[in-house]
Each structure stands twice: as structure tokens, then as C-alpha cells.
Write a structure and sequence with these properties.
CATH superfamily: Decaprenyl diphosphate synthase-like
Number of helices: 7
CATH architecture: 3-Layer(aba) Sandwich
Helix content: 25-40%
Bound molecules: farnesyl diphosphate
Length: 256
């Protein structure tokens, strides 16, 4: 039996030879805001108090993104699955959303924030749909921060919706199956005009994506923080950016 040569690490892999990695700041940060319920429970408060405190953390996070000149921030505020929560909580959450848009829109617009919403907006009450559309229209010319709020959003539903659009385009003779590539597919997602997230942060210690940006997360760096969302602030945001800066991003290739 021939013996295989021993596998040795290339000399350049020695720790002392490694150049510290300094990724440029992420272009797009996406956040799974988790832990509002546990935050409220720990204080013997109703869950809605946790969601209200979560909305204050949203404000701090937008300020941090502006301060760090992050161009794209996407927040997972309501998943397709969240409709299955008790009716009272769904109604509290939608009331909070209604209030948030009305009370924050002028300041967001004045700060150069462009708002977008991804998900099945049609499942919300007509007045909420109208205020989402107004907020998008009012801020459409802003460029300082692209803030996307995922509402009634599910990654699998988004992929199925894109697949249906492709099937229709093929049936109508607009494209052939051979034309289909990643760019063609991406153009039919809710996030068509957005860059993929470079960094996805999830709070509350849970370590999963929960149907968030499944297609777009292909090469995202993931950071899981042991902080409940209502306690999240500028320091956590800065620490996540520092952690990201030290990550080696290979996109499937070999290190340089
Ligand atoms: C997850 O925590 C959070 C949500 C389902 C709602 C997120 C909503 C906000 C942060 C506030 C409103 C946001 C906007 C943009 C107005 P959870 O309730 O699942 O917490 P738990 O896992 O501790 O129960």
C-alpha cells in the first residue's frame, strides 16, 4: 500500500505570519431583533412593553448606523410566522407599527433616511398599507441611509414568489429557462435593488436565521449577541462592526 504524503499546513498559515484582517465597513447590516418578550417578562411587564422598548432600540440603531456611515440597514420587525401569535399581541404590534411610522417619518426623512418595506404588505390593514407607501414615497430621494423594514416577511415565501414570476416570464416567452441565472432570479426578489447583507446580527442568544433573507444571506457574516433587543444600543452595534472587521471573507475562494 502506497503511503500518502503527510499533510502539513502551508508556512504562510502560521499564526505569526498572518496579517490582521481589516475588512472595509459593511455596506449592508441586517438585524434579527429578538428578545422583546423575554425583556418584558424579566420585568413582569406585558409583552407590548418589550416591543415598545424594542422600538426605542430601533431608533438608537438607526442613529448608530448613521454615525458609522453604514449605507444599508435592514430590520426584521415582523415575520410571516408572527401572524400566528395571539390576536392581542398581533394587534398591539400592528398598532405600534402604525404609531412608529407616523411619529418617526419626519425625522427619518430630515436625516436623509430612505425607507423601504419588504414582505407581504397587503396583509396589513389598508391604513397601514397607505402609510407604508407614503413613507416610501416621502423618502424616495434620500441617500444617506437605506433603511429597510421587513414586515410580514418570510424568506421562503419571497423565493417562491420570485420562482412564480420566473415561471410566468418563461410561459410568456419573455425569457428561456437557459436565461435564468442568479442575477435574473435576484431581480425578482423583494430586495431586487438592494445589495446582499454583509453582516447579519441576531440578538437574544438564539442562533438561527428564522426565515430571514435566506437567498441574500449566502455569504453574510453572522453575529449572535447575548443581549435582548430592547437593550441593544450603539456599543453593541460598534462591537459587531469591530468583530466583522476581523472576519476573513472568502466567498468560496482561497485566502489571498
Ligand atoms: C422578537 O421578539 C421581536 C418581534 C417579533 C417584534 C419586533 C418589533 C420591534 C423591535 C418593535 C417595533 C419595530 C418597528 C420597526 C416599529 P420576541 O417577541 O419574539 O421576543 P421573545 O423571543 O423574547 O419572546
Amino acid at each position: 500500500m502506497s503511503s500518502l504524503p503527510a499533510i502539513t499546513a502551508p508556512a504562510s498559515n502560521a499564526a505569526s505570519d498572518r496579517v490582521p484582517i481589516a475588512n472595509p465597513p459593511p455596506c449592508h447590516v441586517a438585524i434579527i431583533m429578538d428578545g422583546n418578550g423575554r425583556w418584558a417578562q424579566a420585568r413582569s411587564l406585558p409583552r407590548i412593553a418589550g416591543h415598545r422598548a424594542g422600538a426605542r432600540a430601533v431608533r438608537r440603531t438607526i442613529e448608530a448606523a448613521l454615525a458609522h456611515k453604514v449605507g444599508w440597514l435592514t430590520l426584521y420587525a415582523f415575520s410571516s410566522e408572527n401572524w400566528r401569535r395571539p390576536r392581542d399581541e398581533v394587534s398591539d404590534l400592528t398598532a405600534l407599527l402604525r404609531h412608529y411610522i407616523k411619529s418617526e417619518i419626519a425625522e427619518l426623512a430630515a436625516n436623509g433616511v430612505r425607507l423601504r418595506f419588504i414582505g407581504e404588505a397587503g396583509r396589513f390593514a389598508p391604513d397601514i398599507q397607505a402609510s407604508l407607501a407614503d413613507a416610501e414615497r416621502m423618502t424616495a430621494a434620500n441617500t444617506r441611509l437605506n433603511l429597510t423594514i421587513a414586515l410580514s416577511y418570510g424568506g421562503r415565501a419571497e423565493i417562491i414568489a420570485a420562482a412564480k414570476l420566473i415561471a410566468r416570464a418563461v410561459a410568456a416567452g419573455e425569457i428561456t429557462p437557459g436565461d435564468l441565472d442568479e442575477a435574473e432570479f435576484s431581480r425578482r426578489l423583494f430586495t431586487a435593488d438592494m445589495p446582499d447583507p454583509d453582516l447579519i446580527i441576531r440578538t437574544s442568544g438564539e442562533r438561527r436565521l428564522s426565515n430571514f433573507l435566506l437567498w441574500q444571506a449566502a455569504y453574510a457574516e453572522l453575529i449572535f449577541l447575548n443581549v435582548l433587543w430592547p437593550d441593544f444600543g450603539a456599543t453593541h452595534f460598534a462591537e459587531a462592526l469591530a468583530d466583522y472587521a476581523g472576519r476573513e471573507r472568502r466567498f468560496g475562494a482561497r485566502p489571498a
